[in-house]
UniProtKB/TrEMBL annotation:
The keyword Nucleotide-binding applies. This is Peptide ABC transporter ATP-binding protein. GO terms for molecular function: ATP binding; ATP hydrolysis activity; transmembrane transporter activity. One of its GO terms (cellular component) is membrane protein complex. Residues 17-254 form the ABC transporter domain. CDD domains: ABC_MJ0796_LolCDE_FtsE. It comes from the Bacteria. Keywords: ATP-binding, Nucleotide-binding, Transport. InterPro entries: AAA+_ATPase, ABC_transporter-like_ATP-bd, ABC_transporter-like_CS, ABC_transpr_LolD-like, MacB-like_ATP-bd, P-loop_NTPase.
Length: 258
């Protein structure tokens, strides 16, 4: 007997985040810089996307605008169905707290707090209690079960970044933005952190967008989008580090001849 399924609702197909014609300029007059030039991109739910491009191509600006950390000049940035430019500062702070997880290159942990207290801090700030079962799942996913009472100085760089990843995941955000999360790590710790980010997508259904310079890091993603001069110029699905490197070299060669 054939079974019929309801067609997916708009909520199900809505990307976790979307930019449409997103333009961002800094400065005025002669010092004006167009950091993003009408970028349109969607980040699908439950996928791991890497954002790559040469230095100054707009990667961090795209992340900051899409995470509501920096206002757009024109065009649209949405998280879920929410248009960020419709929100005032208080609403933006709340949206970031409730719907966005961040992982930065410098870990950004509070030194006086234990690993567990760092992980649960965003929830506490939002006046929420951690769901114990989910907290256990997140802690197990990033392999921190034996380290929860340690303070950041008692942890290696890789372990500190795992705390930061757990902190980003524990509120089940709509999307996690990671800016060069392996930039301060040796290659082994970096590979572990990338593995945990990928597990958070494959096993926990998280959506992750990661800015990186590193083709090996980008190869952990499901998809790589490439920026050059503030424009989205290419993308790769199921990338290998070799294919990512080839594209990067091609952009750089094109940049030198244009
Ligand atoms: N606050 C700012 N004021 C003025 N110009 C800025 C500002 N932030 C970024 N820019 C400019 O916008 C452009 C894009 O910068 P952005 O930091 O997004 O690039 P990126 O790809 O992340 O670079 P990198 O890989 O070096 O971190 C650059 O030309 C940069 O100089």
């Amino acid at each position: 007997m054939s079974q019929t399924f309801p067609s997916p609702s708009t909520a199900l197909v809505e990307p976790a985040a979307r930019a449409s014609g997103l333009t961002k300029t800094y400065g005025k007059g002669e010092t004006r810089v167009t950091a993003l030039d009408a970028v349109s991109v969607e980040f699908a739910r439950g996928r791991f996307t890497a954002v790559m491009g040469p230095s100054g191509s707009g990667k961090s600006t795209l992340m900051h605008c899409m995470a509501g950390l920096d206002p757009v000049t024109s065009g649209s940035a949405r998280i879920g169905g929410v248009e960020l430019s419709d929100l005032n500062d208080r609403q933006l702070t709340r949206l970031r707290r409730e719907k966005v997880g961040f992982v930065f290159q410098g870990f950004n942990l509070l030194p006086a707090l234990t690993a567990l207290e760092n992980i649960t801090l965003p929830l506490r700030l939002a006046g929420r209690r951690p769901d114990p079962a989910w907290l256990d799942t997140v802690v197990a996913t990033v392999g921190l079960a034996g380290r929860l009472a340690h303070r950041p100085t008692q942890l290696s760089g890789g372990q500190q970044q795992r705390v930061a990843v757990a902190r980003a995941l524990v509120s089940r955000p709509e999307i996690v933005f990671a800016d060069e999360p392996t930039g301060n790590l040796d290659s082994r710790s970096g590979a572990e952190v990338l593995g945990f980010l990928r597990d958070s997508v494959r096993e926990l259904g998280q959506t992750v967008v990661m800015v990186t310079h590193d083709p090996v890091a980008a190869a952990h993603a499901d998809r790589v989008v490439f920026l050059a001069d503030g424009r989205l110029v290419d993308e790769l699905h199921e990338p290998t580090s070799g294919a990512v490197l080839d594209r990067m070299l091609a952009f750089e060669a094109r940049g030198r001849t244009s």
